[in-house]
Amino acid sequence: LSLLAGLAAAIDGEQLRLHYQPKLQAADGRALSVEALVRWQHPEHGLLSPLTFVPLAERTALIRPLTEWVLRRAAEQCVAWRRTGLDVAVAVNVSPRSLLDDSILELVAQTLTETGLPAHALDIEITESAVAEDPDRAFRTLVGLHELGVTISIDDFGAGYTCLAHLRTLPVDRLKLDRSFVSGMSGSAGDEAVVRGMIALAHDLGLGVVAEGVEDHATGERLAELGCDQLQGFAYSRPLPPDEAVLVLQAMA
Ligand code: G
Ligand code: G
Ligand code: NA
């Protein structure tokens, strides 16, 4: 409860931070996209992981100002980088409750207008659970986001119960393979078979594929051979504060 009380103040008082983790194109190693990941610089507890407060916010009305803050800050940062000549897009995680909120389309549209971020440079990462919770509303929202010109990724793909029937009709652009399959690949022929199958499925549906949680270069190379489009993970870069992330982006531009 006290953490929750502090979170409202943290959002207002700018104790939140965004770290950025590059996603590389498997074909040429260029980093043309980064995922924004929120942290809370807590005055007593130090830098807190989103796992400690995002689920808490998601159960209350606080998820709304949190999502607003993350979208705005990520868009502003991406615009600043683009002004220096970096051709980079930013991905933002939008939790189920925010995706299903009536005002999400207006919020995204307003963020793009007010920051000047081109819509194609914003990617929204959603989880399968948002779709499972309210398929009709999720569908309408995703159509609306697509009409704005932003791209949509399904996060943690394969970890939950993805309804493949939904996948066929949903307006999404790419799947992010869940880390659990990727980390198991090097030691397990079964995991590699699952990954290979998911890449084939995605491509057959006209979707791109991102592997998350790539922790060693051998796995990254194998994923590239299997046709995976983008790679993300500690092998290439941890999530970094903006002043360090920009150096990685410049090196991998
Ligand atoms: O950065 P880290 O690996 O600690 O993130 C842990 C989890 O928190 C991830 O599943 C990630 O999707 C989630 N997360 C990180 N930043 C945000 C955010 O800005 N909004 C939401 N809803 N979830 C986030
Ligand atoms: O669910 P989501 O993809 O948003 O999760 C992002 C989280 O995964 C972040 O907290 C980030 O720190 C973490 N992460 C990023 N790369 C790796 C990796 O290579 N290995 C592991 N174990 N975690 C990673
Ligand atoms: Na994500």
UniProtKB/TrEMBL annotation:
Which residue ranges does the record assign to the EAL domain? 1-253
Specify the superkingdom: Bacteria
Q: Which residues form a coiled coil?
A: none
Name the chain's protein. Diguanylate cyclase (GGDEF)-like protein
